[in-house]
Specification:
The protein is an all-beta fold and about 900 residues long. It contains two helices and 78 strands. Strands 1, 3, 5, 7, 13, 15 and 17 form a seven-stranded antiparallel beta sheet that branches. Strands 4, 6, 8, 9, 12 and 14 form a six-stranded antiparallel beta sheet that branches. Strands 64-71-70-67-68 form a five-stranded mixed beta sheet, with no helix packed on it. The protein is flat.
Length: about 900
């Protein structure tokens, strides 16, 4: 436990608020334990702030944080205990801000800390910062945080540790104010930025004020939960003056190796003769360990279990075993080394003697065996042990592997059929039942008795009879099916397997099948042979029984002839006649009824519903354009007004007469006039119209539909006018272009442009002299010169407006559009269109690009460093539709790199 005098308590109380001077032992950071023979490195500093985060919080000396840090070491161990880690926060801007310090009173020369970046690709609490802007800034502010300044460079990476497991060692600390991350995994694995290393950054003179704040700030991230980093063991301080340890050393560090528990202290004396002291206790551990025996003598065992006892963290025997217990099979000296929970080592040795006293016998006997000591009689096969006391004090053990061959007394139960012979085990043949005895030798030479109990079973003969109806099947006793009358023999076996003979006399009785084919008219009834009355057509089957008890089948095929009730729908035109089914002729519409007989003699009724459709005489009026043509519905074309007759069929097919009275629309005239101006764009043709029916529509030879034609072409120009009635009028005019030359403007910049940090030159070619220019980009930025460079900051469509004045003082307006973009969607669906995703760029300016694509969960699905587009596949299979995020690093032809990021849609 650290101890301090009262003056030290007062000093440290003020130091906790970050203003007074003091001295703190920072290594070890607390009382510590060592093993006897080990050494401890002591280090002291003169801090305004000293934080190790081991209590799981920010601690005193910090004013705010937007980083939402954790102190659970989620990505592996840090320099010591817990450390501060930023990786799971939803914040985009992540900052850790200290309290305000008065640095004019001394006590602050440097900011010292351990730091590392995350080293895991893809998303998660340990994800790696992989863009130039995603690093951590060390900054100071002298105006209460209104503005922040990076510590001055050069920004130097530390030289040292590339390990993820402690202890960590830095040969040269890092310094500066910003440490830019690396993009690729191979670069990260070789950079000390991604491993715990020490940073010591001198405080610049500009930061020495009465109210200075420090902060660690990550000002750019890919997204929430990305670009993780951590810090630990933060110190803002100086090496103190006039420092002395109780060992006599006067530097900030000391190395001690106490033989027993010792308290070490350090004292700093300041210019005002005040002192500050801090101390630390080093406890020396020297564990004691002894095995329960120095020597073990074992009789008659092949192996022995040695036990080092419980209560130790680690064990190591001389035979390599690392458990508490070990089995040995050879005599000799064995030692074990143990470690306690502090890693301190103790050991002991034991001597082992093994006396093996086991002899083996292999015996085979008939029936039983008496043991060598005479104490046991063994009648079964097995492994048996017998003990005989030896002169050296260890019993002699005889192990007998015994095989006992049995003497058999076997009873055989045998059966034969009457008249069959049976051979006994001894070779004799018998035919009568009884109990027989044979004495025989086994293959092992042991006598055995075999008794045979022989039983003789009789054979049988029987007669049976049966009958079936014609068409049925009879099953004989031997399971054969038969169909005909006769005597059948069946050989069967009795329950004992002996043959038996059964004779079966079979008689087949007759059965009958009859078919009837009657017919009736609809609604009549027919009585079947079974006395059932039916009136529906169909096949009916009646089963009757003969006097012998066999079924007889009568099959009736009944036909029902229909009685028709028919409705005929008939139509005639007005003035026509219609003949009914009975021969009568009628001319008026109505419902008529006729009764008639069918060919089967059944009455039928026919109803006729007669409709009479009218004929029509129609007069219509229409008009046509003067000099035009008029086409009638029957295809007749005329070009003069008058009265025209036409005959048509109605929808029902009846003749109708249409009389059309055709007149003409009013005539009108069109006249074109040329209006001349000084500038080419002031020349136009106007039209004057007299007559006709407004409104009018216009069509010029160049496709224009305006009533005036601006800037007409030299030569013949003509116009077609159509009034409301569709009548047309025409006129033409010959145009001579004024001496003022027609202006031609050709833009000298591309239609598409890849967004980057380089400006695009906007310029144009003119075929006449221009005296004034007015460029306007996106209706916002204005330029009054022939050409200029412009930087586009956003992708999309940009408007470029140009107004020029010629030497003749004529003014011309032109609007251009330029596409500046990275595509925002593609469709890899196999139709050959928009199948790949890649940036559009000018290959004259760029050598190529690197591209990394992630899905919406942050998992990298595509990575290319050779300007290769993505074809929409993930591990050879089509990706799902949705939103994806890209990171693009483009390299221009001079080697400069440009970074872009955004999202796009994959659409199937």
């Amino acid at each position: 436990m650290k101890i301090a005098v009262s003056l030290l308590f007062a000093l440290l109380f003020g130091f906790a608020h970050g203003q007074d001077l003091g001295i703190v032992i920072i290594n070890p950071g607390a009382d510590t334990n060592i093993c006897r023979g080990d050494s401890v490195n002591l280090e002291a500093t003169w801090p305004l702030l000293s934080t190790d985060f081991d209590n799981g919080s920010m601690g005193i000396g910090w004013s705010s944080t937007q980083a939402n840090p954790v102190f659970t070491n989620p990505c592996g161990p840090g320099p010591k205990g817990s450390h501060l880690w930023v990786g799971t926060t939803p914040s985009i801007n992540r900052t850790l801000v200290t309290s305000t310090y008065d640095l004019t009173r001394g006590g602050a020369c440097y900011v010292e800390f351990w730091m590392r970046y995350g080293l895991v690709p893809d998303s998660g609490p340990c994800e790696d910062p992989d863009f130039f802007t995603e690093g951590v800034h060390l900054q100071f502010s002298t105006n209460n945080g209104l503005t922040w300044t990076d510590f001055p460079g050069p920004d130097i990476e530390p030289i040292g540790n590339l390990s993820t497991t402690p202890p960590f060692n830095t040969q040269v600390p890092g310094s500066g104010g910003y440490w830019a991350p690396y993009t690729f995994n191979i670069q990260q694995s070789q950079s000390t930025l991604y491993y715990w290393n020490l940073y010591r950054c001198p405080i610049p003179p500009a930061a020495i004020t009465t109210a200075t704040i420090f902060r660690w700030a990550q000002l750019s991230t890919s997204n929430a939960g990305y670009d993780a980093w951590g810090i630990d063991e933060v110190i803002i301080g100086c090496e103190p003056p006039n420092l002395i340890w109780n060992t006599g050393n006067t530097t900030t560090t000391d190395t001690v190796g106490p033989a027993q528990t010792t308290i070490y202290w350090v004292q700093a004396t300041y210019s005002n003769m005040t002192t500050a002291t801090d101390s630390i206790k080093v406890t020396v551990n020297s564990p004691s360990f002894n095995l329960p025996y120095d020597t073990i003598i074992s009789c008659g065992q092949d192996s022995l279990l040695l036990d080092a006892g419980a209560g130790w963290n680690n064990y190591l025997w001389s035979n390599g075993e690392q458990n508490r217990q070990t089995y040995i099979s050879q005599p000799g000296d064995y030692f074990v080394e143990v470690k306690d929970n502090l890693g301190c080592i103790a050991s002991d040795t034991i001597h082992v003697e093994l006396h093996k006293k086991l002899s083996l016998l292999n015996r085979q006997v008939c029936d039983s065996l008496l043991s060598a000591s005479g104490r046991y009689t063994w009648k079964n096969s097995g492994v048996f042990t017998d003990t005989i006391l030896a002169s050296n004090g260890c019993d002699s053990i005889i192990e007998t592997h015994l095989v006992v061959h049995p003497i058999f007394d076997t009873l055989i139960e045998a059966q034969i059929c009457q008249g069959d012979p049976y051979r006994l085990p001894g070779g004799n043949v018998v035919t009568h039942g009884g109990l027989y005895r044979d004495t025989m030798a086994t293959v092992r030479g042991c006598d055995s008795i075999v008794r045979t109990n022989l039983i003789v079973h009789p054979v049988f003969s029987a007669t049976d009879s049966g009958s079936i109806c014609q068409g049925e099947v009879f099953i004989l006793p031997d399971s054969r099916p038969v169909f005909s009358s006769g005597n059948y023999l069946s050989n069967l076996q009795s329950v004992h397997g002996c043959d038996s003979l059964v004779t079966t006399a079979l008689r087949v009785l007759p059965a009958y099948n009859t078919t009837l084919n009657p017919s009736i008219c609809d609604k009549e009834t027919y009585v079947l042979p079974s006395s059932l009355a039916v009136n529906h057509e169909g096949v009916y089957i009646d089963a009757l029984t003969t006097i012998a008890g066999c079924d007889s089948i009568i099959e009736t095929h009944l036909v029902v002839h229909p009685i028709f009730d028919t409705l005929i729908e008939a139509q005639i035109c007005q003035g026509d006649s219609y003949r009914l089914p009975d021969g009568n002729v009628v001319t008026h519409g109505g419902l008529y009824r006729d009764t008639m007989a069918t060919v089967r003699g059944c009455d039928s009724v026919v109803f006729t519903n007669l409709s009479v459709f009218p004929t029509y005489y129609i007069t219509s009026f229409d008009s046509m354009c003067i000099g035009g043509n008029y086409t009638f519905p029957n295809g007749l074309v005329v070009n003069n007004p008058g009265v025209y007759l036409d005959t048509f069929n109605t929808r029902k097919g009846c003749d109708s007469i249409v009389s059309t009275i055709l007149t003409t629309y009013p005539a009108y005239k069109t006249e074109l006039n040329l209006v001349k101006g000084y500038c080419y764009d002031s020349l136009y043709i106007s039209a004057s119209i007299s007559g006709g029916t407004p409104p009018y529509s216009f069509l010029w030879n160049n496709g224009s539909t305006e009533n005036k034609l601006k800037q007409p072409e030299a030569g013949l120009n003509y116009m077609e006018v159509t009034d409301q009635n569709g009548c047309k009028s025409y006129d033409s005019i010959w145009v001579v272009v004024p001496s003022s030359k027609k202006l031609r403007i050709v833009k000298k910049f591309p239609d598409t442009f890849f967004i980057d940090d380089n400006p695009l030159n906007l310029n144009a070619f003119y075929n006449t002299r221009i005296i004034e220019w007015n460029w306007i980009v996106n209706q916002r930025d204005t330029f009054y010169k022939p050409s200029f460079d412009y930087s586009f900051s956003d992708t999309g469509t940009h408007e470029i407006y140009l107004r020029v004045k010629t030497k003749d003082s004529c003014i011309y307006d032109t609007v251009y559009f330029i596409q500046v973009f990275i595509p925002n969607a593609f469709t890899p669906n196999g139709d050959g269109l928009n199948e790949q995703f890649s940036p559009h760029y000018n290959k004259e300016y760029y050598k190529g690009y690197e591209m990394i694509i992630s899905d919406r969960w942050g998992r990298i699905v595509f990575k290319s460093s050779k300007s290769k587009p993505w074809n929409g596949l993930i591990d050879g299979r089509p990706a799902i539709s949705g939103t994806y995020v890209y990171k693009i690093i483009a390299t221009d032809r001079w080697g400069e790199k440009y970074y872009y990021r955004g999202s796009f849609q994959l659409i199937k």
